[in-house]
Structure formats: C-alpha cells, structure tokens
Amino acid sequence: MAFEIIEYCVNCWACVPVCPNQAIYEAKPHFLINPDKCNECVGDYKVSQCVSICPIEGALLNEQGEPLNPPGSLTGIPPELYAELVEKHSREKALWPA
Amino acid sequence: MELRIDTPDNGSGCTSGSCGSSELGHLPEHIRAKVFNHPCYSEEAHHYFARMHVAVAPACNIQCNYCNRKYDCANESRPGVVSELHHPQQAVKKVLAVAATIPQMTVLGIAGPGDPLANPERTFETFRMLSEQAPDIKLCVSTNGLSLPAQIEELTKYNIDHVTITINCVDPDVGAKIYPWIFWKNQRIKGRAASAILIEQQQLGLEMLVARGILVKVNSVLIPGVNDQHLIEVSKIVKAKGAFLHNVMPLISEAEHGTFYGMTGQRGPTSTELQTLQDQCAGDMNMMRHCRQCRADAVGLLGEDRGAEFTMDKIEAMDINYPEAMKIRAGVHAAINQTLESKRLAKTSQVINISNLKQNKLRPVLMAVASKGSDLINEHFGHAKEFLVYEASQNGVRFIGHRKTAAYCSGDDSCGEGETALQRSLKVLQGCEVVLCSKIGIEPWVPLEAAGIQPNVEHAMESIEEAIATVYQEMRAAGKLTLKQQQKVA
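^ Those are the sequences you sent over. The predicted structure of the assembly is below.
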C-alpha cells in the first residue's frame, strides 16, 4: 500500500520532513512518493503525516485513486470556485521549480 | 506660538514626519541602538539602508485564509510570494552577492514563502553560514509562532537580532475565522481548537523571546469585520508582554490570488480604516507606518525590488570577495550614519514659527507627496508608484502612511486592471487636500483640482516635512484652516 502525489502538487516541501519513512522525494514537475517505502504511516502514526500537512486539496491520492484531502476540505473555498481557479492557472507555471 | 516639526509624543501617537525614527527615540537605548539602521523599523533609515529576504523556507505548518500556497506572479508584491526557491548554500551565495553589490544592504530576513520555523534545518543552516561568513549583516526571521517555543533554543544560537511574529488575534473564536487548520503534534487540527493552540504558542513564544533579550516585532493583518476592533486588544497585550513594535498591515485580497478571502469576497480595509486603526493602536504601541509588505524574496530599499538582478544564474557568474566587500560596506555605513546623525541634529533644533495660532483652533490637513526617497519631494506625479501621506496640524507634521497608485499587482491586462492610472490616483488620494510632487502634467491637474486636491510643484527637491509645514502655513494665512461649525459636529 502506498499513496500517490499528482500534478496538483505545488512542491512546497511540507510533506518531505514529516514522512517517517523518507518516502517522498523532490522531482520534476512535482514531488513523488516511492511506493516501496510508503506504508501510509501504519504503525508509525495514528494518521498519515503527508495527508495531515499537505495544503493542497486533491494533490494526494490513496490506492483507490481517491483524493485524501477532497475539494473543500482544507481551504473552505467552494469546490466549483476552486476548480475554476485551477483551470485558469493550469496554463501558467506552478509556484516553485521542483 | 510655534509649530514644532519634531516634538516628542503629545498623546496622539507619533507626531513627527519621521514616524519610525522619532518613535524609536522613545525606546530604551539598547533597543534603539539595534534598530536605528534597520530599514524596516526606522522610517528615516529606510531611505538609506536596504534589506533582502531569501526564500529558503517553503514548508508551512498552518493555513491562513489570506494565503494561497499555489502560485507565483512576478508582478505581485506581497508576503508569501517568491519566484525562486533556494537551498541554504545558494541563499548564502545570493546574500553575499547582494551585500557586495548593494553595500547599503544591512539586513537579511528569512520570511518564507512558508514558515521559516517549519523548515528549521534550512533556516538555521542559512543563519549559521551567514553569521560566520558575513558578520556585518543583521539577521532576522518572521514566523507564525506555532513552532517558536519548540525552536527557541536553536534560534538563540545565531545572533538573531529580531523576530517578527504574525499575531492576528488573541481570541480563538476570532482565530477560527482566520485559520482553517494547523499541523500540530503529527495531526491536522481544524477550527477553534487549532486557533487556541496557535494563540497559546504565539504568546508563549513572545514571552520566551523577550525573556532572552531578543527583540520582537508583531505583525497583524487587518481584516475588516473579522479582527479590526480586536487588534486594539492584541496591541495592548503584545506590548505588555514586551514586543517593541506593532505593525498593522492591510489585508491583500483579490479573487485572482485564489485565497479563501479573495474567493469569498472578503475585502481589505480602506486607507482610512487602516489609518484609524493604526491611530487607535498607536496610543498603546509604536507603529510602523512605512511598511511596504514585501515579497518573501524582496531585495533592495523598501518599496523597490531589485530581485531580478540577482537570479541564481546571474549570481553564479559573479565573483565575490566578501572580506574586501566588507571594508567598502563599513565605509558606506559610516557615511550613511553620519548623514542620519546630522539630519537628526538639524531636526531637533528646527522650529517653525507660526504666529496667532493661539487665536483659533486649526483643522488638520492630509497632504500627499510623490517621492523617490531621500526624504525629498523628487518624483513626477505621473511616475509615482505610491504617495506618502502626511498630516499637518497644530501639533506638527506626522507621517500617516503610504498609498500605492498601482495595486501590488502592477501586471498586464490579464490581471483585470479596469481603471486608468489617473482614476486610481484620484481614488488613493481621497481625503488629501494637497499633492506635492516635482512635476505634473496639465492633464491630471484639472481633475485633481476638481476633486479638491491641490497639485503643488513649488517645493520640488525640498525636504518633505519642511515643505508640508510651509504649505500648511500658507493655507492658514489664506484662511483655509479655520474649523467650520459643521466640521466640529462631524
């Protein structure tokens, strides 16, 4: 079992130091999780650490491909407004070079 | 009767044009000695000394409703925004390059783009190398305070001059409207409970810093309808605990920024709302009215950003001999200090006579100034990116704040700029009766007059405060300052 980081990731580094298994690494265009190292924090913490600190809704997926922080769950911004924004900025560059 | 230009506090907050520095005069000597050449803390010093931020701290441990972790925009100037993230080695190289090229640079801050103390290894590695390689640079750090108590021992190792804590509230119910979540003890905590922990850690961190003799500045974001009146209490509490400055900044909130506030229509304060609140807090606290809300990677004098000259590829090509540069820097600093000292002496002896003031009460007047710096009226009206606003009254001339003509986003059409530059200028000058500048075209002159704002170019290249005092006297002589009955009522 392992989580996955997808293209919504903004490379903010928050997850890297909190991962107990050093499973997350810097990559382009966005950070990635090594599935061989990720154990979803089972046995390490009550809750998965990357999921608990990631500020971006939808950037982390579980094994079923479902967002671990679904739209609206973190920022409180209504999902439909958020989707518009993502669409508008998807053509522009992401915040930080990986 | 006399109109003093640089009087001590008369009970209405800062009474001098050099708001920062004259207020610093009230500080104990050991604090004043630390901050007099810090551009962010001294209105006077900021015309001469420069600062820079390095973006080494991307991670954050909280979410604020005025922040979006997502996008960079080179046209934007606001906290939390950067173009290039650095590793500590790169950051140190950049600092040495800037300090050698801009010898006026005295201060290095780490301010993000995340929370510096949520990136302790990167932040402290940068500070450690700089304290060894560039001992003539002051170091400072800003934080949301959540990790402050946990990091305090490490923090005290690097000769850090000042710490800025952003404190927007002391009441968790207010905090619940500002912070949707925090990451604390390996969990994400939401709602009121999150704010309660954050507030507790901020206050504890403030106390611990003061107990260790480290200067603490408090930043607060003024969010109309959320924490506006509450900030008066924040100001009282942080001052009582020993913070030496309180900086109330306006919320920056546009839908394009993709923040919760921007997308849900929470507005920022008007210039008048900000000024009123700063005045209300000023009785309790030294305020910082010349703050320009810099980007987390800003370089140069306040209000200017020379970051583009120091991108990593340009820095790699530079050959820096820092020990040599340090000698040149020492000379430049000594010369600036001499200028500042002679200005200070000139000011304390400067008193302008105004006869017959005792006869009647005169109303205060707001005047705007277009300036490129050096305390002079030396900017063309049409070129001004911001206006400095001063209040002239019987008590003297005092600096009120700066108002930007272009929004922090000065970008192209895609940023949704619908107003002409003149319309925007008219709006930001609202409440001012005079605008002093070095030159002005005929085109803006008429609409300005029509809006009750008198353009004035007679004091080009003169010292700002003296010119304002002179204009105030002229207005008095012309009978324009007598308090009218309805104005008293209003």
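The CA atoms of residues 206 and 469 of chain B lie 40 Å apart. The longest strand of chain B covers residues 396-404.

Shout if you want it in another format.
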